[in-house]
């Protein structure tokens, strides 16, 4: 299981996301219990945790899809909690959200899926410029040949790639990946992990990757934080996070069946 190479392009003097004292509860169940987190420019940050521990809730709050109960979330210099709807919409254009199910429109071809956000948010572009942009992101994810196919004709891994391409087409500063390898076979998981690193390099993105897949975490994470009982209990490189006698950490490691 190969560890991610050291990334020299991370700028630790610039934080693109700053979270302090974040709390979120659903009825009587407090999912996030005073979370603090920083994402540095150019960094791939992995948030590890079992299902239901609040990982996806975290990135939904970052993107304004959920409201925090307490705490502050600052994204690209803006206080998410204090933004008006139109301001939040403008900020979201700088945040790419790669959904777990790829979220493609089944009735549209790949080209039409990628053209849709351009038609809504890049109306200044000419038809030729749109086509060049679509082809560029498809080449970036290795699927230019699928441009005229329907989502139903693609494999799970291909749909994931197209979903990432559609997210990249507006050139976001931040990428949020929600369980990028969920439901994929081991070979396709390796391909998606490589793609996440390629996206970081080619598009100069800063990313948060939500996962419970340790192979993914080790392959893409410049830094890893582990969410346990609603708080980040471990932080560092992959090896640093799992150099622990904490039974919760060890059971999570053993659950992934990694030697």
Task: Reconstruct the topology from this structure.
Elements: E1 11-26, E2 29-41, E3 44-48, H1 55-62, E4 70-75, E5 78-79, H2 85-92, E6 95-98, H3 110-121, H4 127-140, H5 156-168, E7 174-178, H6 186-203, E8 206-211, H7 214-220, E9 223-228, E10 231-236, H8 238-242, H9 247-255
Parallel strand pairs: 3-8, 3-9, 6-7, 7-8
Antiparallel strand pairs: 1-2, 1-4, 4-5, 9-10
Helix pairs in contact: 4-5, 5-6, 6-7
Overview in brief:
By secondary structure, this protein is an alpha/beta fold. 36% of the residues lie in helices and 27% in strands.
What does this structure look like?
With 259 residues, the chain is of the alpha/beta class. The chain has nine helices and ten strands. The strands form two sheets. A six-stranded mixed β-sheet has the order 6-7-8-3-9-10, sandwiched between helices. Strand 4 and strand 5 (78-79) form a beta hairpin. Helix 4 (127-140) crosses helix 5, helix 5 runs parallel beside helix 6 (186-203) and helix 6 (186-203) runs parallel beside helix 7. The radius of gyration is 18 Å and the shape is globular. The N and C termini lie close together (9 Å). The model has no long low-confidence stretch (mean pLDDT 92).
Spatial ordering of strands, largest sheet: 6-7-8-3-9-10
Distance between the termini: 9 Å
What gross morphology would you assign?
Answer: globular
Helical stretch tally:
9
- Count the strands? 10
Mean of pLDDT: 92
* Secondary-structure content class: alpha/beta
The portion of residues assigned to helices is 25-40%
Output the helix-strand order.
EEEHEEHEHHHEHEHEEHH
Radius of gyration: 18 Å
Oligomeric state, counting identical vs distinct chains: single chain
Q: Specify the biggest β-sheet.
A: 6 strands, mixed
List unreliable stretches of 5+ residues. Answer: none
Instruction: Assess the beta-strand content as a share of residues.
Output: 25-35%
């Amino acid at each position: 299981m190969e560890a991610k190479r050291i990334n020299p392009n991370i700028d630790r003097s610039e934080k693109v996301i700053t979270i302090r004292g974040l709390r979120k509860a659903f009825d009587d169940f407090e999912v996030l219990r005073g979370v603090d987190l920083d994402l540095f420019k150019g960094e791939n940050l992995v948030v590890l945790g079992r299902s239901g521990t609040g990982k996806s809730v975290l990135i939904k709050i970052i993107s304004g899809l959920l409201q925090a109960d307490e705490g502050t979330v600052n994204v690209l210099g803006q206080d998410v909690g204090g933004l008006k709807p139109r301001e939040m919409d403008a900020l979201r254009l700088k945040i790419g959200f790669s959904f777990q199910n790829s979220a493609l429109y089944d009735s549209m071809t790949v080209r039409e899926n990628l053209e849709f956000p351009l038609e809504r948010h890049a109306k200044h572009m000419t038809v030729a410029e749109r086509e060049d942009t679509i082809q560029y992101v498809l080449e970036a994810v290795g699927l230019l040949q699928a441009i005229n196919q329907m989502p139903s004709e693609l494999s799970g891994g291909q749909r994931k790639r197209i979903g990432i391409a559609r997210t990249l087409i507006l050139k976001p500063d931040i990428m949020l990946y929600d369980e990028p390898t969920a439901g994929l076979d081991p070979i396709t998981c390796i391909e998606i992990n490589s793609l996440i690193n390629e996206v970081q390099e080619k598009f100069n993105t800063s990313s948060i990757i939500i996962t419970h897949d340790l192979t993914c975490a080790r392959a893409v994470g410049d830094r890893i934080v582990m969410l346990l009982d609603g708080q980040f209990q471990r932080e560092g490189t992959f090896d640093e996070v799992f150099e622990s006698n904490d039974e919760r950490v060890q059971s999570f490691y053993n659950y992934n069946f990694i030697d």
